[in-house]
Amino acid sequence: MMVVGLTGGIGSGKTTVGKFFVELGVPVYNSDVRAKGLMKSSKKVKRAIIKLLGKDSYKGKVLNKKYIAEKVFNDGVLLKKLNTIVHPAVREDFLKWVKAQDTPYVIQETALIFENASQGFYDKIVLVISPSNIRVKRVMERDASSEKEVLARLKKQLLDSEKIHLSDFVIENVELLKTKAIVEEVHSALLEYS
Which fold has domain 1-27+103-194? Predict the structure, then answer.
């Protein structure tokens, strides 16, 4: 079974593109959703996060996302340590999930393939891009964030121009009907590879 990485910067529309693949019968593993789930459900992950960031990381059994974000956002070392807890747990969970699938290929939706130098995990990589002004607007609406906050998050990711030549397929996500048509083309091409 072929494993495809679906990536793109914040607000590019990875999840929207992932939904289009699901409509075509392709299983899509959303790494962000699964990571949050593991941070809540895995005792091992939970213990490691509390040890790293303190007991305020959870309010009872609920993940204190705001507290964690405030702790790691401007502290690269702390963020890296948090990622060394969460990323291996997500990888392990993903590999178990893949074994349960029975399709020509599966997709892992994950934001930081190139930033984490994990492109070697994938047979093919699909990059979703959108103009930065559209991405900023989407994230401001989705997360109720200020423009300044969104731009700060964008600066922490590689530019699309740096990722394009590393990707097998590029989907520009501006107009939904066009995006859907491109997803269908990419799907047909991936079926030929698998």
Answer: Rossmann fold (3.40.50)
120: left (phi over 0), alpha (psi -120 to 50) or beta: alpha
> Given this model, what pLDDT does residue 91 score?
94
How many other C-beta atoms can be found within 10 angstroms of the C-beta atom of residue 129?
21
Cα–Cα distance measured from residue 65 to residue 35, given in angstroms and rounded to the nearest whole number: 12
Question: Exposed e or buried b for every residue in 166-182, given b needs 16+ CB within 10 A?
Answer: ebbbbbbbeeeeebbeb
Q: Where are the domains of the chain?
A: 1-27+103-194, 32-100
| Its pTM surpasses 0.85 | yes
Q: Which residue has the tokens 């993903």?
A: 94
Q: What do you get for the CA distance between the two ends of the chain, in Å?
A: 7
